[in-house]
Amino acid sequence: MIKYTEVMVRYGELSTKGKNRKDFIGRLAGNVTKVLNDFPEIEIHPRHDRMHIVLNGAPFEEIDKRLKKVFGIQTYSPAVKIPKTLEDIEKTSLELMKETFKEGMTFKVNTRRSDHKFEYDTNQLNIMVGDYLFDHIDNLKAEMKHPDIVLRIEVRQDAVYLSNQLIHGVGGMPVGTAGKAIMMLSGGIDSPVASYLAMKRGVDIEMVHFFSPPYTTDKALAKAKQLTSILANYCGKINFIAVPFAEIQETIKEKLPEGYLMTIQRRFMLQLADRIRAQRGGLAIFNGESVGQVASQTLQSMVAINDVTTTPVIRPVATMDKTEIIKLAEDIGTFDLSIQPFEDCCTIFAPPRPKTKPKLDKAREYEARLDVEGLIERAMAGIEITPIYPNQEFLEDQVQEDMDLL
């Protein structure tokens, strides 16, 4: 099995960013460093045209799993550094091809040479290495325009670098290049997908999750943290902000008409999210609302709820079908967890007949009957902030705690 020595990372949209390109590349390098922080032997060298990751013995298979989830990477290739001799080039090229070639595939050799003093030029190397491969691999076919495999030979000053895989990353922008925002995370399917899409556009998000003990269980809170841990694979770390919401829900249920319970609850959630955004230096609020999906997500409801803030509220999945959202949730690994039956605070206090077309003036009137500032201040005083990293376990820990209590 080939022992790769480095990975060549190619940028995607960064190539269009002009004067900001250097900052974007620096941010990408920082994000790659975070997701590979448990491989201290690795060296990362960000350059203008590409990033070089020197493995120094680290296993490419593990690095590959991490790089597939880093936004801002268009493609990358594992490479082998070898001495600058024709014998080494031919021998290693054959090993690479035998590892990746399958019957019926086509190939081409593509040589680039920055060391112009090397004894063979690009055409000579293309021909000699191609002939060597034809002599040692049966049924090999050349294709110059659209080959299945491109064997890339780069002759640099220090050595020769060989690669023949082109692995696609997730694209997008490096997380953090678009600024910071708050994400309103429930335990459902939509908001984790919205979180993923926000990060793909370079937004550095912090999760705000509302919980209502004793009505919601510790498992529901653990589920939201577990979802955050899955999403942290795409950026290295996400702060999770748990907001106590039971007093607000109890007060609304006791004092206001049933039809407006959901509308007023959502207005409080948005006000709290906005307070947290301001404290944390965020520029916007994101959520997982999809137009018309539930009563609180009709356009009339959005008007009545958004009334409490002038901060931009961005809804990445607003126009997506449910089937599209589910497909993306499956792709990013959040779907199976999202459908686990641990009820969140939106579910347990949901009225049987919520207003689908609430009136803005009524929403303001009902909310004014409450001690809005006092309720918000007490909720803000009880928030808990937890930094969450990739692949942490929360649900398993909670199950173990429950068993210990039995």
From TrEMBL:
GO molecular function annotation: ATP binding; CCA tRNA nucleotidyltransferase activity; tRNA binding; tRNA-uracil-4 sulfurtransferase activity
Reactions accelerated catalytically: [ThiI sulfur-carrier protein]-S-sulfanyl-L-cysteine + a uridine in tRNA + 2 reduced [2Fe-2S]-[ferredoxin] + ATP + H(+) = [ThiI sulfur-carrier protein]-L-cysteine + a 4-thiouridine in tRNA + 2 oxidized [2Fe-2S]-[ferredoxin] + AMP + diphosphate; [ThiS sulfur-carrier protein]-C-terminal Gly-Gly-AMP + S-sulfanyl-L-cysteinyl-[cysteine desulfurase] + AH2 = [ThiS sulfur-carrier protein]-C-terminal-Gly-aminoethanethioate + L-cysteinyl-[cysteine desulfurase] + A + AMP + 2 H(+)
PROSITE patterns: THUMP (PS51165)
Keyword tags: ATP-binding, Cytoplasm, Nucleotide-binding, RNA-binding, Thiamine biosynthesis, Transferase, tRNA-binding
THUMP domain span: 61-166
CC terms in the record's Gene Ontology section: cytosol
GO biological process: thiamine biosynthetic process; thiamine diphosphate biosynthetic process; thiazole biosynthetic process; tRNA 4-thiouridine biosynthesis
InterPro entries registered for this protein in UniProt: Rossmann-like_a/b/a_fold (IPR014729), ThiI_AANH (IPR020536), ThiI_fer (IPR054173), ThiI_N (IPR049961), THUMP_dom (IPR004114), THUMP_ThiI (IPR049962), tRNA_STrfase (IPR003720), tRNA_sulfurtransferase_ThiI (IPR050102)
Pathway of action: Cofactor biosynthesis; thiamine diphosphate biosynthesis
Gene3D superfamilies, per the entry: 3.30.2130.30, HUPs
EC category: transferase
Name listed for the protein in its UniProt record: Probable tRNA sulfurtransferase
Organism (species): Lactobacillus kalixensis DSM 16043
Gene: thiI
